Amino acid sequence: MQIDLTDQVALVTGGAHRVGKAIAVELARCGAHVLVHYNSSPDAATQTVREIKSLGVDAFPVQADISTPGGIEVIFAALSEHFDRLNILVNSASTFQQRHLLEVSLQDWQETLNVNLTAPFLCTQAAAAVMRRNDPSGGVIVNILDKGATDPWPKYPHHSVSKAGLLMLTNVSAVSLGPDIRVNGVIPGPVMKPAASGMSDEEWAALGKRLPLKRTGTPEDVARAVVYLARETFLTGTIIHVDGGEHLL
Which residues contact 207 (CB under 8 A, 6 or more apart)? Predict the structure, then answer.
């Protein structure tokens, strides 16, 4: 059975730009109202909210540093004030820091896990409490992962560990929060050039050519997978690879 997302309320962390923005906008296209979380991109958040509202739904930006529990409290206080309900949580915000394992400081480690794992954990707890006050009770959580969750990335060791933890959190939450709350995940592949990577168009195209589908994807591919997981009521603990077959290599 499919859920109609019209008039549902969604919270997208890291929803101001890049893949998070695509997810927020796609949910809005399906009729959902969206709380757009951002940390340090106020102009991007304003533009994203404007774009969402142009689709005929409500949207609201909230600034918060999710590396701290206080930041999570700020988000859910804003949610309570503006919408007072929640149907969809997308944990999309992430930090991506390159280090060799022996160069990772304790501060690097803690900062990465705070954003990539602890924040989704705290958001999951807070969201579950709100979702169970819905009428009818329930909702769906979608965690945005990456290939580091399943394959060791030696250049990004603390990132890989954080995403592997988020994958397990997805599975544990799916078992713990059912039947009224479903929890799923998406593992994107090459859908957008890494920020500040300096990767040329030629290098990006070459990256796509090595995939079974011989091309790169788009953030909108990820967004449509999130919508699918939000709509389909018999899916929980499901992980979708949106990667052109990269996980097969």
Answer: 190, 199, 216
- Is the CATH code 3.40.50.720 the one for domain 9-248? yes
**Pairing label, strands 181-188, 239-242:** parallel
What's the CA gap between 152 and 218, in Å, rounded?
Answer: 24
> For residues 126 and 78, is the Cβ–Cβ distance under 8 A?
no
pLDDT value at position 226?
A: 98
Q: How far apart (Å, rounded) are the C-alpha atoms in residues 186 and 107?
A: 28
Would you please indicate which residues are annotated as catalytic (active-site) residues? 156, 163
Q: What is the pLDDT of residue 198?
A: 77
Q: Could you tell me the pTM of the whole model?
A: 0.97
Write down the domain spans for the chain.
Answer: 9-248
pLDDT of residue 102: 96
The CA-based dihedral angle spanning residues 229, 11, 177, 169, taken in that order and rounded to the nearest 10 degrees: 80
Q: What is the DSSP letter of 8?
A: -
